[in-house]
Amino acid sequence: MDRILIRGGNRLSGRLPISGAKNAALTLMPCALLTEEPVTLRNLPRLADVDSFGHLLNQLGCSTRIEGARPEDFGRVMTIRAGKLTATEAPYDIVRKMRASILVLGPLIGRAGEATVSLPGGCAIGNRPIDLHLKALEAIGAKLEMAAGYVKATAPGGRLSGGKYTFPIVSVGATENVVMAAVLAKGGSRIENAAREPEIVDLCNLLVQMGARISGIGTETLEIEGVDRLHGATYRVMPDRIEAGSYACAAAITGGSLELVGVKLSDMHATTDALIAAGVTLEERGDNLLVSASGPLQPLTLSTAPYPGFATDMQAQFMAMLCLAQGASVLTETIFENRYMHVPELARMGANIEVHGRTAVVRGVERLTGAPVMATDLRASMSLIIAGLVADGETQVSRVYHLDRGYERLEEKLSAVGADIERVGDG
Ligand code: UD1
């Protein structure tokens, strides 16, 4: 299995391109199931999760065509066509590897009137049930049956009725599923306490371009008027706000200066506010963001929250950065119950972090030292990369497949801005 080797200590400097957003891609791709016409997605990141999602769509009967695949290009263009669906099931083998596969549930039931998906089971960052996905779909007319680890959802008469649902807690994936199902319902739907993440706005914008009727986009109340059919569209995936934030933390911890190329700043205020509070200098240059840090970093108190709050997907990277701040930071994780698995790995590199339940106290240290460390999930892996960039000596990050799920050609992007980083195979 591949590992990433980093010899720390280099200041990052230069221009670093930001890719299309993984989490947007994974909800835009299943929209193609909603129409027999082609849906073309531009700026789709080259990631293992995007490939896996493409394979799942192929298994359901979609054709996928990729263009713009010159090796030097970041991003691709994919045209997905679901002329005729040949299956309506997301099997266990795929769902267990990629939880986002459950996002075919909504569009399949919307288009075909039925869908079967495997229950996802546990995952590295905690027990992540899909009860809210199911309750929301039931509220707009789906009938559910559970058997042998699968849930089968059907729309009586072949079409969902529409209805009203208020989420008890904010869920990104469940909001996406119910919206994708509701756009083809017979009647209207009203979704309250919906997630407001920019990726949901991206999803709604694509659906509207395909002919859906959605109002309240970007707010916590979405009103959807079902239509009889949707048509194809061409759509550009939004920039990855989490990738941008991750590289901003990398620039800051190395005392470097990076121009992040192609970001959407209005989607990442919580991250930029936290960077500024830590003493990082930010300068907006059109669609680019210049991130530079010279003096010592200041400690922060941060609590993760649904958008527009501080993203749980940024917690691990900020924790790595704050390991070198001048003082004690307090981070609280409110979204997932087991999202501190990077803490023992960072401790092996000399970090001083104490976890008390959902809160972590990070006391700044003078320096980190390189060590062999193990990635446990996608964002945790990135926190180890960030720490490795500044640590004395060599850091070896194993289980690199986590990073390949969500960071497009990470070592290439980082070495182009001065990092001493390489991927090595086991052989
Ligand atoms: C999405 C993102 C993930 C991000 C998360 C929170 C994708 C592919 N993944 O994950 O990167 O960290 O949003 O911003 O977009 N919950 C339930 N029942 C459900 C669904 C969720 O209890 O049916 C709970 C979860 O366990 C969690 C919370 O709700 O505690 C929020 O999870 P959710 O917003 O659904 O996360 P995902 O959509 O899985």
UniProtKB/TrEMBL annotation:
Belongs to the EPSP synthase family. MurA subfamily. InterPro entries: Enolpyruvate_Tfrase_dom, Enolpyruvate_Tfrase_sf, MurA_subfamily, RNA3'P_cycl/enolpyr_Trfase_a/b, UDP_GlcNAc_COvinyl_MurA. Pathway: Cell wall biogenesis; peptidoglycan biosynthesis. PANTHER family: UDP-N-ACETYLGLUCOSAMINE 1-CARBOXYVINYLTRANSFERASE. It is found in: Cytoplasm. The keyword Coiled coil does not apply. The active site is at 123 (proton donor). UDP-N-acetyl-alpha-D-glucosamine binds at residues 99, 128-132, 313, 335. The modification 2-(S-cysteinyl)pyruvic acid O-phosphothioketal is found at residue 123. It catalyses: phosphoenolpyruvate + UDP-N-acetyl-alpha-D-glucosamine = UDP-N-acetyl-3-O-(1-carboxyvinyl)-alpha-D-glucosamine + phosphate. Cell wall formation. Adds enolpyruvyl to UDP-N-acetylglucosamine. Pfam families: EPSP_synthase. Its EC number is 2.5.1.7. The gene is murA. CDD domains: UdpNAET. This is UDP-N-acetylglucosamine 1-carboxyvinyltransferase. Residues 7-414 form the Enolpyruvate transferase domain. Phosphoenolpyruvate binds at residues 22-23. Keywords: Cell cycle, Cell division, Cell shape, Cell wall biogenesis/degradation, Cytoplasm, Peptidoglycan synthesis, Pyruvate, Transferase.
